[in-house]
Amino acid sequence: MTEPQTRTIEVPGATITYDVRPAEGSTEPPLMLIGSPMDASGFATLAGYFPDRTVVTYDPRGAGRSVRAEGAGESTPDLHAADLHRVIDELGMGPVDLLASSGGAVNALALVAKHPGDVRTLVAHEPPAAQELPDREHALALIQDMRQTYDKDGFAPAMAMFMAITSIRGPLPGDLSGVELPDVAQMGFPTEDDGTRDDVLFAQNLITCTHYRHDFDALRAASTRIVVAVGEESEGEMAHRGGLAVAERLGSTPVTFPSHHGGFMGSEFGWAGKPEEFAATLRKVLGE
């Protein structure tokens, strides 16, 4: 695979940075790999398994190298979708195939609802679609509590709640009084409150992503082939259940991918999945 070509594009309220790994002679559409708030670095390992495809990765606004304008508010899925539309248009190679994970899957579904011509096949991997869960009231309330904890006490207490909530298997409780919170210091996260309140997860995307209401009528009518993916090791977790709920609303059958919520990742971040097996399953789903 060739070295990534790093490019930028100006969009309203931000400068978006994205990377293109060209594959000369490829007749397939570009393969775009996205997350949110995860930036392009999280997909470097997976990209390496597609040397025969032009691969595009990007940093969502406010994450990694993509800088938001000073004083910008929260980043909504519709805003991320508009950014993605502009990047795909700038590429001039669409429609793309799109693997979108976690919050990226929420944003990609918003993109397809508005611009179905941008995407040939969307693989939406474990969207944390809390609005679609049968226990949505508990889920949404816990997420609101998490955001309030971040606003009041800072990153570490909010991250402890995040890790606890996303690890629960099955319906979410009304509160976390009976749930043991992890020690985030042992996981390498900072524990001192630095006073800032613009974290890309908690301040910019947490509420807008999980509370987003998808346009299922538009998605069912879209020309895009939509495949919902869930992890074989994450059964019962909120994002896995969110994927099942989205698939049910679309009237489709979800596809099980290897490993956990970050199953496409290598060992760079200490939470290695099974990227080679993940890539093989992705190729199969894309019809290669």
From TrEMBL:
A GO term for molecular function:
hydrolase activity
The source's superkingdom equals Bacteria
The chain's coiled-coil residues are: none
Q: Name one Pfam family in it.
A: Abhydrolase_1
Question: From which residue to which does the signal peptide run?
Answer: none
Q: Which UniProt keywords apply?
A: Hydrolase
Q: Where is the AB hydrolase-1 domain?
A: 52-173
Instruction: State the InterPro entries in the record.
Output: AB_hydrolase_1, AB_hydrolase_fold
The protein's name is Alpha/beta fold hydrolase
Give the species: Nonomuraea typhae
